[in-house]
Amino acid sequence: MTESLTKLDLLGMTQEQIGALLVELGEKPYRAKQVMKWIHHRFIDDFDSMTDISLNLRQQLSEKTEIHEPEIISEQISTDGTRKWLMRARSGSAVETVFIPEGNRGTLCVSSQVGCALDCKFCSTGKQGFNSNLTAGEIVGQVRIARRVLEEAYPDRKRAVTNVVLMGMGEPLLNFDNVIAAVSIMMDDLGYGISKRKVTISTAGVVPAIRKLKGTTDASLAISLHAPNDELRDKLVPINKKYKIAELLQACKEYAQGLGDKRTITVEYTLMDNVNDQQEHAIELAVLLKDFPCKLNLIPFNPFPGSGFKRPSNIAVKAFRERMVKAGYNVTVRTTRGDDINAACGQLVGEVEDKTRRQEQYRLIQTGVA
Ligand code: SAH
Q1: How far apart are CA 206 and CA 300, in angstroms?
Q2: pLDDT of residue 358 exceeding 50
Q3: pTM (2 decimals)?
Q4: Is 167 in the pocket of ligand 1 (CB under 6 A)?
Q5: Which domains does the chain have, with CATH numbers?
Q6: Which of 112, 144, 267, 278 is the most exposed place for a label (fewest CB within 10 A)?
Q7: Nearest CA, atom 9, ligand 1
Q8: What is the CA(26)–ligand 1 centre distance, in A?
């Protein structure tokens, strides 16, 4: 166990990082391509099977590195084809990953942290508090597992992961380096070959980290807005007290412009009954986003016990949507999937093994250590 913790996990290393490691081991960096293919295309975990790599290198790799996929604790399959996996992270805690098939598309909703520190008032992960960051390997590992399981279940590729959204548990931008490495592997042809438009990082609005994205990645970005003004957003998404809406939208705009390919930002807006779902909110939102390059994704609130919020009526959702469409926005309403297996947004809870860590982390954050 201790030995394995000191080994580098190749699963979470980018092609560049593996290349640099191979140079250290006296090899040519391009051999990283072979190693990546074994790991991500052929799902191989043991070095002995990597037959196009010299025996000497295989030996060195097995001494210094490992390929460590998270363990699958359970898999649930919904009647609508949605699948949810509970996976164990190294910290001992478990996180959830959800696969949502929709026609030719298959979206994998990936977690980036165990728990979350941001405490958005309507999110069940937020209620748990923060527990730990996932490693890059644990984030990529979720994609690897889903790809492999689906390839086995559907050899005709009828269902496959075509899109990845970092909308599972956690705030991706508070686990910046691991998320950036993981996303790079997802988009690399020698990794999972998913196009940059189809890998989306979703954030509650960690503005300094959004600014850091520029030049670091070219993945797509989604923001969890949920309110058309600061007064209401302060209450729903507490990080808004630190970084206001105007600052958040400006940082996103600069990121989108920096990509230079007419990319839009996805604005997520969870509709909660009598909180942010009225016509006046829609009108205010339409004005707020007037010059913002976006598509709007409305999410009717998914209830969980003790949340204190209610899902709006279908009539209210439709009226909100129509108002935004009339104002010229590209609007989608996220349908609830995997209802029978609690796989909807905001319902993912995972399973925390070490509850003392949460308090400890919290103290470290309070004292400015973390
Ligand atoms: N931390 C990231 C990812 C969160 S989950 C972020 O904030 O963007 C993805 C989306 O689901 C977010 O927009 C989140 O605010 C929303 N969400 C959380 N709980 C929800 C719930 N109970 N019902 C509907 N949407 C919810």
Answers
A1: 23
A2: no
A3: 0.93
A4: yes
A5: 3-66 (1.10.150.530), 71-366 (3.20.20.70)
A6: 278
A7: 167
A8: 46
| Residues 211-230, mean pLDDT to the nearest whole number | 97
Pocket test for ligand 1, best of 112, 113, 164, 268 (most atoms within 8 A of CB): 268
pLDDT band at 54 (very low <50, low <70, confident <90, very high): very high
**C-beta of 298 in contact with ligand 1 (< 6 A):** no
Report residue 344 as tokens. Answer: 């909807």
Dump the DSSP string for 63-124. HHEE--PPEEEEEEE-TTS-EEEEEE-TTS-EEEEEEEEETTEEEEE---EEE-SS--TT-H
Tell me how far the alpha carbon of residue 347 lies from the centroid of ligand 1, in angstroms. Answer: 9
Q: Which residues make beta-bridge pairs with 265?
A: 294
Catalytic residue among 27, 69, 96, 268: 96
Provide the pLDDT for residue 359: 41
SS3 266: strand
Checking if the pLDDT of 5 tops 70, the result is: no
> Is the shortest distance between the CB of 130 and ligand 1 below 6 Å?
no
